[in-house]
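Dear Dr. K.,

Following up on our conversation at the group meeting, I've run the structure prediction for Plastid division protein CDP1-like 1st alpha solenoid domain-containing protein from Salix udensis. I'm pasting the input sequence below exactly as I used it, so you can double-check it against your construct before we proceed with anything downstream. Let me know if the numbering doesn't match what you have in your notebook.
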Amino acid sequence: MAVSNLNLSPTILSSSSCRCCYCHFNQKSDCSLLCLGFVKRTIPFSRVLRKPDFESNNKLIFNATTDTRILHNAAATTKATSTAAVEIPVTCYQLVGVPDKAEKDEIVRSVMQLKNAEVEEGYTMDAVISRQDLLMDVRDKLLFEPEYAGNVRDKIPPKSSLRIPWAWLPGALCLLQEVGEEKLVLDIGRAALQHPDAKPYVHDVLLSMALAECAIAKIGFERNKVSLGFEALARAQCLLRSKISLGKMALLSQIEESLEELAPACTLELLGMPHSPENAERRRGAIAALRELLRQGLDLETSCRVQDWPCFLSQALNRLMATEIVDLLPWDDLILVRKNKKSLESQNQRVVIDFNCFYMVLLAHVALGFSSKQSELV
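The predicted structure tokens came back this morning:
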């Protein structure tokens, strides 16, 4: 019997391609823009506000086999026929969200709660049905099959993997996402998408992964880590935009609106990180984001979500070095901005660079000019 193994370590993209997480699902999509929520912009934002790829877990192996055994519940046919099956690295306990030492009544209670719970909007009916079938199958395994339940008294661990039909994979990822196993959802989903047998289920797999990223984002926001939450939302956005059938979901619109609102705060948070090699790429991305926000503000675009420009820009400039400020606002651009300042004020429109910010930029030019002996900067 032929067995093909897919390692769940992250996909490494070449340096010439967009390194935004998951953009390899759809090379035609401009994920460099999507990652910041600036959907209609033309300035590239590659690697902006991006979280490093997921850590690989060499212990997790994704096996796809052709098996003659059909996993079924009590209502399914008992006739053995050939079907494609997949082995996922999870225990039955993980699928229903209970610890390995859970008693039978706790298992039944958790299964019933999941069975009666409302499934997230966007899943196909096949995924919803497979979720219910898998729940019943897992319940029976935990209650009646010692191999899957293990034995605490005899110190026998539960079986660490589960073989299911490919058609049940969307249901498995849906359940894992519901019970808080976000990393497993992302690892299994990413590996599954590399296998041809997953093609009929891509919609549901991507949706589960996007919802897992949203859950990670929520955790980041609750811990007051705006950038981590922002990056998770950006990855969720890329996942949803990689499939046409997911592009019309209300969830995607909500994510895009949140990204636009959070971009200024995320930019400031990343600029405030220590100047260390591990933060260098994020800092470059944050400066690119600041440049785009500044362009939007100066162009009076309504999509720009910065409410108090003098406050925001002064905080950003205080986090930049002189060379970075000069690169962000060269003399020619600065002169043009100040020339337009009076006309903007006469029209009661917002002023992006007020006198205090102008003075900070001026000092940066003078300081860099003297230190580097570049008279044109002074």
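Two things stood out to me. Confidence is low (pLDDT under 50) at residues 1-82, 342-348. The first helix runs from residue 31 to 34.

Best regards,
J.T.
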